[in-house]
Each structure stands twice: as C-alpha cells, then as structure tokens.
Amino acid sequence: MSDDPSPAEGTNPDPRSDEDPGADELTHTTDEGEVQMVDVGDKPDSERRAVAVGEIRLQPSTVEAISEDAVGKGDVLATARVGAIQAVKHTWETIPMCHQIPITNVDTAFELGEDRVELEVAVETTGKTGCEMEALEGVTTGLNVVWDMVKAVEKDAEGQYPDTGIENVRVLEKEKRRR
C-alpha cells in the first residue's frame, strides 16, 4: 500500500499509484460518470521505472533479412528504436488521460528469434505518476515500425499478412522509489 497522502475529497486516487483501487472504483470518472484527468498535484515526486515487452511474429526469411540488414527500407531495428523512443515521449498526446511526464531515460532492447522479433522498453521518470503507459506505447509503436519496415516482404500474393502479428504486449515490472 502506498504511503501517498489521501486524495482530496471528491477526487479519485491516481490509477498509476501503487494503490489498487477496488473494482467498482473508476479512477478517470467523476461520481457523475464524466471523464476526468486525475489530479496528481499534491503527490510527492518519486523515481519511477516501468518495463514493457512485446513481440512481432514474422516469416523466418524476414527475421533473417532484418539480422543481415538486408531490408530495402533500411535498418529496421534502428528505425524501430527511434519510433519507440518518440512514442514514449509523446504518450500523453495519444492516451487521453495520461499526464505529460518528464522522461529521464528510455532503454530499448531487441531480441531476434527464428520467427519473431521481441522488443523490451524500459522507461524512467522522476515525477508524480508512473510510466507504464509510456513503456507500453514504446513497445507497440516500435513493433508497428518493424511491421511498416518489412511489410513488403511479409505480404502474401493477395496482399495480406497471414504470418505477421503483434503479440504478448505486457508490463513486466514497475518500480516506485521515494526521493
């Protein structure tokens, strides 16, 4: 349980705090059902870190082309890394109730399997709210960039993607340390 001060009367707790609100408690709505951004102004700053991971399933020949830097559009993993970092920095613009937070670090790591590329994104911040959404946004966008970079070789004769899919996107861990 968090030792953060209780929220002011009439407000809901921060959904990205360490407290787990009850299933019947919606944190981004008022008692009247109106959407709201959670007020985190009175929360103390703390060091926070979140790690998310996901993978894109590809044809083995595509993974091989990525590993040999032989994809016509360019360096797939370098481009996906830039996309992931950009997505982390802009999460607040795409997820409606996310706060804009100061990103202090982003680490990305790719692992190539026989028929997939895994991407892990770790995000760090010092602030009033967590960074899980930023890590997830980095993973999903990074994997979307991989897809965009390899779509020409992943398409079948009908222009479809029967062997391609983004899967297993999840938060691996989150940490909160008092300053």
From TrEMBL:
Q: Does the keyword Lyase apply?
A: yes
Q: Which residue ranges does the record annotate as region Disordered?
A: 1-47
Name the Pfam families on file: MoaC
Show the InterPro entries listed in the entry.
Mo_CF_biosynth-C_arc, MoaC, MoaC_sf, Mopterin_CF_biosynth-C_dom
| Compositionally biased intervals (Basic and acidic residues) | 15-31
Question: Which stretches make up the Molybdopterin cofactor biosynthesis C (MoaC) domain?
Answer: 37-176
Q: Which UniProt keywords apply?
A: Lyase, Molybdenum cofactor biosynthesis
Where does this protein have coiled-coil stretches?
A: none
Q: Lyase: is it a keyword of this entry?
A: yes
User: Which Gene3D superfamilies does the protein's record reference?
Assistant: Molybdopterin cofactor biosynthesis C (MoaC) domain
Q: Provide the active-site residues from the annotation.
A: D148
- Specify which residues bind substrate according to the UniProt entry for this protein: M97, C98, H99, M133, E134
Enumerate the catalysed reactions. Answer: (8S)-3',8-cyclo-7,8-dihydroguanosine 5'-triphosphate = cyclic pyranopterin phosphate + diphosphate
Q: In which pathway does it act?
A: Cofactor biosynthesis; molybdopterin biosynthesis
A GO molecular function assigned to this protein is: cyclic pyranopterin monophosphate synthase activity
* Quaternary state and interactors: Homohexamer; trimer of dimers.
Q: Function of this protein?
A: Catalyzes the conversion of (8S)-3',8-cyclo-7,8-dihydroguanosine 5'-triphosphate to cyclic pyranopterin monophosphate (cPMP).
Which family does the UniProt entry place this protein in? Belongs to the MoaC family.
Recorded hits in NCBIfam families, A to Z, give: moaC, PRK12343.1
Q: Protein name, please?
A: Probable cyclic pyranopterin monophosphate synthase
Q: Which gene encodes it?
A: moaC
